[in-house]
Write a structure and sequence with these properties.
about 75% helix; globular
């Protein structure tokens, strides 16, 4: 997966963050502080979030690298794209049964408990740690990005992919913290209605990338690595 798509996925899907991560950004212990403190505090929080994404991307990129040894990287991209489209087209009652969050509910509870205590402190360290933990919370948009990091086929590329994804979400997350509740319910509802279309576009992007059409940046032609070459 071309790395430029990571920032695109983050930027296009970042409006989803208003509903998912928005409450956390609004609850950061930065109220009644001057603008510069709120700006750098929010940036510190987002730095922690992006670092977690990069670490996760490295792990998933390594998985993609192992799969790429047998020439399956392009099929991974196509499969991911199809699954993304199915997540939009299938009825919600069906997709809820496949929700991976149910398998990690206990871990999520521990993450939230750890975050709860950090909100009592106004230090930059606490803001950074809140961001680190926030990156572990379940989010459909992050799942899509992690799927992209698998398709990069390398640990370092996976880390870079997720870091760029995080940077793509940064403008909206910064705006949420600085503007507060100025983003009204009506706007959030409109964004929520647009999200299926945005997610479907991301799915198509994955599929086109995997078709190996020889289109620069969009679908570059890739020659699968041979197992023998990788072993030497």
């Amino acid at each position: 997966m071309e790395l430029w798509t990571a920032f695109t996925v983050g930027a296009l899907g970042s409006f989803h963050c208003i509903g998912m991560c928005g409450p956390i950004a609004l609850a950061l212990p930065l109220k009644n502080r001057d603008f510069s403190t709120r700006f750098f505090g929010t940036a510190t929080y987002n730095l922690g979030r992006i670092l977690t994404y990069a670490l996760l991307g490295s792990a998933f990129g390594a998985i993609g690298q192992a799969l790429g040894f047998i020439g399956t990287q392009q099929w991974i991209s196509i499969t991911i794209g199809v699954l993304i489209l199915l997540s939009v087209l299938l009825p919600a009652t069906f997709t809820k049964k496949l929700n991976p969050e149910s398998f990690i509910a206990k871990g999520i509870g521990r993450v939230k408990s750890g975050m709860r205590g950090l909100f009592m402190s106004r230090s930059y360290k606490s803001l950074f740690l809140i961001g680190l933990l926030n990156g572990l919370l379940p989010c459909g948009l992050v799942y899509l990005a992690l799927a992209g990091s698998v398709a990069t086929g390398h640990a370092w590329s996976g880390a870079a992919y997720m870091a760029l994804f995080g940077l793509g979400t940064f403008p909206i997350m910064l705006s949420i913290s600085l503007l507060g509740n100025m983003i009204g319910v009506r706007v959030r509802n409109q964004i929520r209605r647009a999200m299926p279309v945005i997610i479907a576009c991301i799915g198509v992007l994955f599929i086109v990338r995997g078709l190996n059409l020889g289109i620069p940046y969009l679908s570059p032609r890739v020659t699968p690595q041979r197992v023998i070459e990788c072993c030497h």
